[in-house]
Amino acid sequence: MTTLKPNALKAALYNRKIQLGLWCALSSSYSTEIVAGSGYDWLTLDMEHSPNDMHTVLTQLQMLGAYNLEPAVRLVKFDKDLVKQYLDMGVRTLILPNVESAAQAGEIVLSTRYPHRGVRGVAGQQRANRWGRIANYAQTADEQICVLVQIESAPGVNQFDAIIGTEGIDGAFVGPNDLAASMGFLGQQHHSDVQKTIQSLPAVAAKHGKSIGILAASEADVQRYIEWGYKMVGLGSDQGLLAKASDTLLSNCRQFAQQHARE
Description:
By secondary structure, the protein is α/β, with parallel strands linked by helices.
């Protein structure tokens, strides 16, 4: 009988285990496979701020099936038809951007559940149920679907207790840059007011038995956020790693070349 492996990220978050991951925005299965081999617990395929589309996400999902990690997908926006397509494609962990109310969170949950618990459209054969080979998929799909809402605005923070307490929401993920901008500190995610807000959120999630994640800008941020109770921590992005390594390599070698030219 065909079965799917459990969603280890979802289980880990409910068990409040630290999960380290990376944001993938280069939209390439080749580059994503390179970082997958590092041993991350999860990788997020970003669609909001990258040229990823349905086809690039699909090829990356197919490749990542060979690795012991959980792929997540951040959609460009919440739309129940988009949610349906990506769930049918086999995505089990979804990150929905800029959620600001419990009502929004409830609509998101409904879009991930089959009737009568929700409004997800029913397809007899799709990648998620291995083209019909998993006979009880419709009855058990909810168990492995992980719904994460992104908190990245002052209104979202104000409503966070109600949002994270919504049944079917499995966790949250903070977007520091957008949060800072919403609070009036564009480009200043390390402003003390922003950091105090970020520090306050894990305890709210824990009250509901849930975990919260965040994207860190540096190793110092990683350490601080873990100390504050964040469990799903992004260690940057593939494009950031490439840019930093490229800049460092060129800078170091150019200094040597310039020194040699003066000799």
